[in-house]
């Protein structure tokens, strides 16, 4: 069983920064692709960024150059550094872990952390 616990959300002014953290329990962290998703009110959940076990990264176009995803396998933690925040970044941010074993895909979600960008 894997549990993901996010932290670091909050209220920030436009142009400000926040760092989200997601700590995982269980022993599959180093084998999993870790990602951050977000969901704004009335909108579908969307991928923000993802990082493979080897450190390869993928970003949504709307965060490129502003957000950075990283991971510390020893601490079983994935981070999302968010800079130059905009009001449209306001959403609940969810941590995601995905592990593929043969033809099986195991997916886990955190409970989410609210990020509000407002003056």
Number of helices: 0
**Span of the ends, CA to CA:** 40 Å
How large a portion of the residues is in β-strands, by DSSP E? Answer: over 45%
Topology order in helix (H) and strand (E) letters: EEEEEEEEEEE
- By secondary-structure content and strand pairing, the structural class works out as mainly beta
Gyration radius (Cα, Å) is 14 Å
DSSP strand tally: 11
Mean of all residue-level pLDDT scores = 94
How does the major sheet shape up? 7 strands, mixed
Which residue ranges are poorly predicted, with pLDDT under 50 across at least 5 consecutive positions? none
Oligomer: single chain
Helix percentage: under 10%
Label the overall shape: globular
Question: What does this entry show, briefly?
Answer:
It contains no helices and 11 strands. It is mainly beta and 119 residues long. The mean pLDDT is 94.
Descriptive notes:
By secondary structure, this protein is mainly β. It is 0% helix and 54% strand. The strands form two sheets. Strands 2, 4, 5, 6, 9, 10 and 11 form a seven-stranded mixed β-sheet that branches.
Itemize the secondary structure elements and their pairings:
Layout: E1 4-7, E2 10-12, E3 18-24, E4 33-39, E5 46-51, E6 57-59, E7 67-72, E8 77-82, E9 91-101, E10 104-109, E11 113-117
Parallel strand pairs: 2-11
Antiparallel strand pairs: 1-3, 3-8, 4-5, 4-9, 5-6, 7-8, 9-10, 9-11
Which short descriptors sum up this protein?
119 residues, mainly beta, four-stranded antiparallel beta sheet, 11 strands, 54% strand
């Amino acid at each position: 069983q894997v549990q993901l616990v996010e932290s670091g959300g909050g209220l920030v002014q436009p142009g400000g920064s926040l760092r989200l953290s997601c700590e995982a329990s269980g022993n599959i962290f180093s084998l999993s692709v870790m990602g951050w998703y977000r969901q704004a009110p009335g909108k579908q959940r969307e991928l923000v960024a993802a990082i493979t076990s080897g450190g390869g990264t993928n970003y949504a176009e709307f965060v490129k150059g502003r957000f950075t995803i990283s991971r510390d396998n020893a601490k079983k933690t994935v981070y999302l550094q968010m800079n130059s925040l905009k009001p449209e970044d306001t959403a609940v941010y969810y941590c995601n872990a995905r592990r593929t074993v043969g033809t099986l895909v195991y997916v886990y979600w955190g409970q989410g952390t609210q990020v509000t960008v407002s003056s």
